[in-house]
Amino acid sequence: MIALPWERESKNLEDSYLQSLGKNILFSEAEELRRAAERLGPELVEAARAIHDASGRLVVVGMGKSGLIGRKIAATFASLGTPAFFLHAAEGAHGDLGMVCREDVGLFLSNSGETRETLEILPYFKRLGAVIIALTGNPTSRLAQDADIVIDTEVTAEADPLGLAPTSSTTLQLAVGDALAGMVTELRGIKKEDFAMFHPGGSLGRRLLLRVEDVMGSRERLPLVGPQTFVREAIFEMTSKGYGAAIVVDDRGRLLGIFTDGDLRRLLEDQGPQGMGLRIEDVMTKSPKFIQPEKLAVEAVHLMEEAEISCLAVVKDEVVVGIVHIHDLLKAGVA
3-class DSSP state for residue 236? Predict the structure, then answer.
């Protein structure tokens, strides 16, 4: 009776051997990427332009390991602004082909180019007149022969110790998918702000979409004092509003200065209790840093970091309309 792999006794291998094996696998896959980068050219451009010019979506088709890679490729395109979805070849033959339109582009993945399920749905795309792009390691395969554009993903050998498991071939498929997605993204003129629109729940989305006005304290929470206010009165405003700072404004609400808990500590060290009876205009920081409400919240973070401060007055048309604290930005996931 043959012992199953997990029932066999493990080999007693040296760490140095395992380390060398792991590195060699990485080097092997990297070498296949290098070879592909050298031989591929116009076909990448033709495929990228076909995807870009299509009025429909990118339909990525695959089975098995190629199918898993196809899912990732479709997800990458979608995240970069190209409508795309993955179509499992076997499911396509059982009804899912109804999702495909003549305006779509089919990106078919098959290392052998002879995968039965993948070939079975190929005629449907051809009847529709949809452009077919093949990623295959066999440029003479049936898939390659029926495709409009062929991208050769042939590898000299798989990278696993047996030379059998899809390793180098799937790595190359994924890398070519990334290359196409990057080229189409450039053709579309996608910017970081656009990317953020597709990822509003992610950290990048928050950093690129959130404005100061979205996180600043409301008008009722503004710790405002006039220039003639005594320090002891300003302290009450600072603590009651919870910002550790008092914004000094004139009678029209224009920014004159700011007095922070740091300023208070320095005042008490220098003046002692007598400092509490001084006017705020005599001890405030004049011409303080401020920011406009329509600015990106991440700009407020950079401004605070550069000035080594923890809060900023928010000013619109010369009038103080809010205050933003580093804690607000941290809570919003921007800082």
Answer: helix
